[in-house]
Amino acid sequence: MGRLLPQGGPDVHTLQYDQAHFAMRASAHNGLERFGDRLVACSGHLLNVEGRPLSVHDVAEGYGRQGVQFFDGLDGHYSIAIWDASLRTLVLARDPFGVMPLVFAQGDTWTAFASHYKALLALPQISAEPDLLAINTFLYNGWAPPGRTFFKDLRPVLPGSVVVIGANEPKIIRTKPRACDYEIPRKPVTPDHVLEAVERSVNAYAHDTTAKYGVSLSGGVDSALIAALLHKRLPRTQLCSFTVGHGESDSDIIGARQTSSILGISHREVIVRPKDLIELLPKTVWCLEDPGGYDEFPQLYALARGAAGKVDMMFSGNMCDTLFAGMPAHRRLWLGHHVPGAKKILNELRSAELSGTLPAYWPARAVHYAIKGRHPLPAPCSAGPNQNRLATEEMAFADEDSPLFRMLGSALASWDNRMGAQQVLVAEFGLRSAMPYASKHLIDLALRIPDRQKVGPTQVKVILRKAAELILPRAITHRKKYIQQFRYDSEMADVMDHLYSRLFVPSRPAQPSVVNPAEVERLLRRGKRPYKPLEIRWLWNAITAEIWTQQFVDRRDEFLGDGSGDIGPTSI
User: Any idea which of 146-155, 221-230, 393-402 has the lowest mean pLDDT?
Assistant: First the structure.
């Protein structure tokens, strides 16, 4: 298992006490120690409530005094394992948004855990049977559902949770902040309060005066605010920004270049073309394990590779959209709540998108005609015979008081693995990840902001933009949000066709099939026209699911080997 852990130093540090065996790759930012009758392993960036760093010894002492309640006051990005021999209990804990990955599996007389499930695949008692229902959810929605992976036997520790494993069934304890503890917010929050909270979080991750810091800078306000606060705190020589995009016309490239110029910080650009996906996709899926997301993840892999050796820690603006309501889903929910008749139309459009049919309700069909054309699109390919999927209905909160508050509470209770995906990409190149918006005190603040301060008739993230205006010009704070993606032109279509032809080949050795090749073929374009965005999305999911199958299912025997050779990503 230690051999298969992908990050850290070359040496594997092991400890055994009582019935517990712990192993960790040596790293300055990991810790593995024995304290009395406990083994404690920590990974990530641990902070106390004041934002000061904590060590593995601090964690052991805190748990010894408070038990699992200790995790209520723990902040930062972390995954923690504690074997408590006095209670014969294993405790697994993870930060609120799952920035640090942590996965476990169980049998009748054993429990195994790891930061990456590559290590768990070294155990022959763990089945490599795919979870077809979880994979089907991914094919429709782009992510495996919360609490599941692509393997039936492997489960992630839910973000913001502690799993207590003893003689009985595992007990899951939610850590603070818990949305169910909050009342619907009514009192407005000031922009100064928001800025102060974000600055406090940024400073907590930038305490090392000898480190070099990078910012993954998009064209939006989220990362620009972090860059401005880091520029305020750090000497110019310690800070550099990085942007990735498809070329000179990319909105993120243009916006980030303007932001870095205004702030006066060193800036680097990484250009990724569609043809680069042939090399990048297998490596990205290998890092992510369960694939997820779309264009942004191979691009972020390339960005992290470009930043390697130039900085020690990479900051990003992830989670800002979730906390301050900046996603298209938040705009749709606001419309469904405030505009008469909009909820039914939006529900019909979403259903049509998932099923590949035309809406039945004539106003929704008219919108579909205007946006997507007069022909239904093919539905995603199925993973095996079970067509069911676990899809979240975003409009479920539209009829409730404060729907954005309800939506945030739902996200906190059932967050998936996308933040862990961000972290493993930068860690692949020896970088540390910092996502200041994922801090507990910012989650607490977001749960106290009224809906009207988040989304308005013409703008999302209203209060966050007002806070950013205190230190950034309106040219940045009111810049339109863009999705990080390639141009879906003929070049991109040719690459998708090439990936299909290389992966779904009749000559492939007989192996258990996860994705139905006949249904993938049904998605392919006819002629030379470019693919529509929705067609790209569904093909992308089918292709990455097949890459996953070939890397993890078809090669299972390699994970069970004796360690004589390295295991890495396949190539296309």
Answer: 393-402
Please give the order of strands across the beta sheet that includes 432-434: 266-271, 239-245, 213-216, 313-315, 432-434
- pLDDT per position as a tens digit, 9-65: 678 888 999 889 998 887 656 789 999 999 999 999 999 988 899 999 999 999 999
Q: What is the pLDDT of residue 126?
A: 95
Find how far residue 276's CA is from the centre of its chain.
22
Token pair 């900051």 is at which residue? 315
Model confidence over 54-99: pLDDT tens digits? Answer: 999 999 999 999 999 999 999 999 999 999 999 999 999 999 999 9
Q: How do 313-315 and 213-216 pair as beta strands?
A: parallel
Residue 417 CA to residue 414 CA, distance in Å, equals 10
Measured between alpha carbons, how far is 439 from 82 in angstroms, rounded to an integer? Answer: 23
- Give the sign of the dihedral formed by CA 348, CA 353, CA 354, CA 358: positive
Q: What is the DSSP string of 196-264?
A: HHHHHHHHHH---TT--EEEE--SSHHHHHHHHHHHHHS-GGGEEEEEEESSTT-HHHHHHHHHHHHHT
The torsion angles phi and psi of 104, rounded to 5 degrees, stand at -140, 165
Name the nearest CA neighbour of 44 among 82, 6, 89, 8: 8
Look up residue 230 and give its amino acid. Answer: L
Angle between the N-to-C axes of helices 328-338 and 342-355, in degrees from 0 to 180, rounded to the nearest 10: 140
Phi, psi of 412 (to 5 degrees): -65, -30
CB atoms within 10 A of CB 284: 25
* b/e map 130-143, b = 16+ CB within 10 Å: bbbbbbbbbbbbbb
CB 43 within 8 A of CB 24: yes
Instruction: Evaluate whether 135 touches 545 at the Cβ level (below 8 Å).
Output: yes
Q: What burial class does residue 67 get, using C-beta atoms within 10 Å of its C-beta: 0-12 exposed, 13-18 middle, 19+ buried?
A: middle
CA terminus-to-terminus distance, the chain: 27
Q: Strand, helix or coil at 80?
A: strand
Which residues lie closer than 8 Å to 420 by C-beta, 6 or more apart? Answer: 98, 99, 100, 101, 156
Q: Is the backbone of residue 428 left (phi > 0), alpha (psi -120 to 50) or beta?
A: alpha
Name which of 203, 130, 174, 195 is nearest 434 in CA terms.
203
Provide the token pair at 48: 């106390």
Q: In whole angstroms, what is the distance from residue 513 CA to residue 137 CA?
A: 17
Q: CA 307, 308, 311, 314 torsion: positive or negative?
A: positive
Residue 380 per-residue DSSP state: P
> Helix H segments across 240-392?
251-263, 277-288, 296-307, 320-324, 328-338, 342-355, 362-372
Closest CA relative to residue 114, chosen from 176, 157, 85, 145: 157
Cis-peptide, bond into residue 177, ω within 30° of zero: yes
Tokens of 369: 């005609």
Helices (H), 389-523: 403-413, 418-427, 440-446, 462-468, 474-477, 490-503, 517-523
Q: What is the 3-state secondary structure (H, E, C) of 160-171?
A: CEEEEECCCCCE
| CA max distance for the chain | 69
- Cα 432 from Cα 420, distance rounded (Å): 12
